[in-house]
Every structure is written in structure tokens, then in C-alpha cells.
Design goal:
This protein is α/β, with parallel strands linked by helices. It is built from 11 helices and 13 strands. Helix 1 packs parallel to helix 2. 53% of the residues are buried.
Length: 367
């Protein structure tokens, strides 16, 4: 079996062995990156490969998976003449989080911990629960009090234990981190563990293949913890670095106006949020993250791409979700934020793709 790459701290360079259960930098306590710089395969060589995200094997830090559920290769459908939607809610657990969860579960299976823990507002938790079930791993998911009953039901149906934590998303994360520090525990963090980002980057590799070796002018991406955006930035860098992409797209990051610490930092020209940005309830619970651990990386990725930040109000989210449903696309409110941001002409004729990240069955229509 191919050796696993080491992890390292991008802030101070501390290295973590590949088989370690350490989930953060021991010095600064920040998230880790992966010492892995792959070269994607040319477009023609992809013909006839497995019809899942594992067709991009050269770009993935794990090979020969045993826990795959056929994730990836989701459809790309037009919404307008210039805007298309990638239907990532058509995944085994009904959200894009399967892209990263499969890599975390495969990594945990190879390390062999006593148990796996995760924290989530719902979608990441259901994905981790499903893939841990596939891998035969005991799993506990910490979720905020008030998480959608349907998401809790899905987590528990996969055999995981859902622990509701009094408080918001950050309280659930704190509970999971305490559990992660217990012996023989693997923290399947979709934020701190870089394997997750190397799973989400396949979203862009699929776009590149389906668009015949190119990408749109703009990738519009929802941002809370930024796992899809940072994965997209990884994929763009890989494709461009290999000479497989002539032009890099701009990354447009979308936040709910009710919880927009990154957009606020962007407006100030700052490298990171203040940590004191006011927050309010939002339909877009999946991106309601007041203090994202990878904030500096997210802001830098958007800036380096020539992109920008957009915010959307609750009314715009609600109307965008209803509009998508009227087009036959029933997605959760969080999945509608990118369409909310661009449906009224913000793109000015640029070509773009928006991800529809989670199914409406998980939480229903915003009202």
C-alpha cells in the first residue's frame, strides 16, 4: 500500500506523522495541511475509469478504497445561458460532504482507532456516520441543539450516536474536540483534517472533465468553514500547475448576511475576522460559523483568485430556495445561497457554476 503523506502546520511548519491521531498543531492548535502535491491525469486518460470521484486517483492521498459508496460524478445542469448548477445533493447521504467523508473514513480504517468522533450541524455528521458504518467503525457525532430532526435520524440510522450539545455550532465543536483528545480516538474533523479538503477538491476535477478541460469564469461557493472553497482552490492549483488549465477561475465566496465574519473581514481588507462580528439566526445553518478555523486560508484563496465575497439576506435565501424548487431542484436553504447571490445579475454575463450542496429533504423549505 502506498505510504500516506505527512500532515504539517501551515503556520509554523510542525510536522505530524501520517499514522498519528493528532488532529491539530501541538503549538498553535491550528488546523493542518497535507504534504501532498499531485499531478492530475490528462483528460483523455480518464475515459473508461470508475464512475466515482476515485477516477481522479492521481490527485488523491489515498488509493484503493474499501469504503466507497460510489460518491461523486454528480450532474451539471443549466440554470441560465451562463450559469449551471452542480447537483451535489445527489450523493449517497444527500450532500457534498460525502466527498471528504469517504477519505476520512478510509484514513480512520487504516489507522484503526477505538472510535471516531465528529462535530457537525448535520450534513458532515451524516456523511461521517455513513462512511464509518461502511468501514465498521464506532462513531459519535456532536451536533448543536436544534439540529434538524431528519439529520439526526439519518445519523442514528447509520448506527452512529448523535450527541446534542446545548449551544450553537461552536459548542458542538468544543465538545467534539474534548472527546478527540481522549486516547485511541480519531477526530474526523471536516475542518481540521486536510484529507477532507482533498476529497472536496474532486468537485472541481469533475467540472473540469465535464466542461471538456476548462472551467467557468467564476466558481460561486458557499462559505462557513470553507471546506468546499479550499478544496476548489487546491484543484485549480493542481490543474493549472500541470498545464491542464489555461485560465484560473475567480472564487466568489457567499455567506449569509446574518453570519458573515469572513465577508466583514474582506470588506475591511483584513487577513482574518475580528471574532466579534454580530451573528443572528439564519436559514443557512450549514454555513453559520462565527469563527472559522481556516479563516486566513479562505480569505487568501479568494484574494489570490481575483474573487470576492457576497452576502445574502434571509429573504433572498428563502426566495432562491423556492425558485430552485420551482425548477425541479429541491435543496436545503444552505444549498440555495449561491443561487441567491447571483440569480439577479451579479455575474454581468460571466459564466459560472453554483453547487447545490444538500437535499431539501434534510430540513424542508425555509418559511
Amino acid at each position: 500500500m502506498t505510504p500516506l503523506p505527512d500532515r504539517y502546520c501551515p503556520a509554523d511548519g510542525v510536522r505530524i506523522p501520517s499514522d498519528s491521531l493528532a488532529w491539530r498543531c501541538p503549538n498553535c492548535h491550528g488546523p493542518l495541511d497535507l504534504d501532498f502535491s499531485p499531478t492530475p491525469a490528462p483528460l483523455k486518460s480518464l475515459t473508461g475509469r470508475v464512475n466515482s470521484l476515485w477516477r481522479y486517483a492521481e490527485t488523491l492521498p489515498l488509493a484503493s478504497p474499501s469504503v466507497s459508496l460510489g460518491e461523486g460524478r454528480t450532474p451539471l445542469v443549466p440554470l441560465t445561458d451562463t450559469v449551471s448548477a452542480k447537483l451535489d445533493f445527489l450523493m449517497p447521504t444527500l450532500s457534498f460532504k460525502d466527498r471528504g467523508a469517504v477519505l476520512l473514513a478510509e484514513l480512520a480504517r487504516r489507522i484503526g482507532p477505538r472510535r471516531v468522533v465528529a462535530d457537525s450541524s448535520g450534513n458532515a455528521g451524516t456523511a461521517i456516520a455513513a462512511y464509518c458504518a461502511r468501514a465498521g467503525l464506532a462513531c459519535t457525532v456532536y451536533v448543536p441543539l436544534g439540529t434538524s430532526a431528519k439529520k439526526l435520524e439519518q445519523i442514528e440510522a447509520h448506527g452512529a450516536r448523535a450527541e446534542e450539545v446545548d449551544g450553537g455550532r461552536e459548542a458542538a465543536g468544543a465538545a467534539a474536540r474534548r472527546a478527540a483528545d481522549e486516547p485511541d480516538t480519531f477526530y474526523a474533523s471536516h475542518v481540521h483534517n486536510p484529507y477532507f479538503l482533498h476529497g472536496t477538491k474532486t468537485y472541481v476535477h469533475e467540472l473540469w472533465e465535464d466542461m471538456g478541460g476548462r472551467l467557468p469564469d467564476v466558481l460561486v461557493l458557499p462559505v462557513g468553514n470553507g471546506t468546499l472553497l479550499l478544496g476548489a482552490a487546491l484543484a485549480v492549483a493542481e490543474l493549472y500547475g500541470a498545464g491542464l488549465l489555461d485560465k484560473r477561475p475567480a472564487l466568489w465566496a457567499v455567506q449569509a448576511a446574518a453570519v458573515a465574519p469572513l465577508a466583514e473581514a474582506w470588506e475591511r481588507g483584513a487577513d482574518e475576522p475580528t471574532g466579534t462580528t454580530p451573528v443572528a439566526p439564519t436559514y443557512a445553518e450549514g454555513i453559520a460559523i462565527p469563527r472559522p478555523p481556516r479563516a486566513r486560508q479562505i480569505l487568501r484563496a479568494v484574494r489570490d483568485s481575483g474573487g470576492t465575497f457576497l452576502t445574502v439576506t434571509e429573504d433572498r435565501i428563502r426566495h432562491a430556495q423556492a425558485d430552485l424548487a420551482s425548477r425541479g431542484l429541491y435543496v436545503e436553504a444552505t444549498a440555495a445561497v449561491c443561487w441567491a447571490a447571483v440569480r439577479e445579475g451579479a455575474l454581468a454575463g460571466k459564466s459560472a457554476v453554483v453547487p447545490l450542496c444538500g437535499a431539501g429533504l434534510k430540513s424542508g423549505l425555509a418559511r
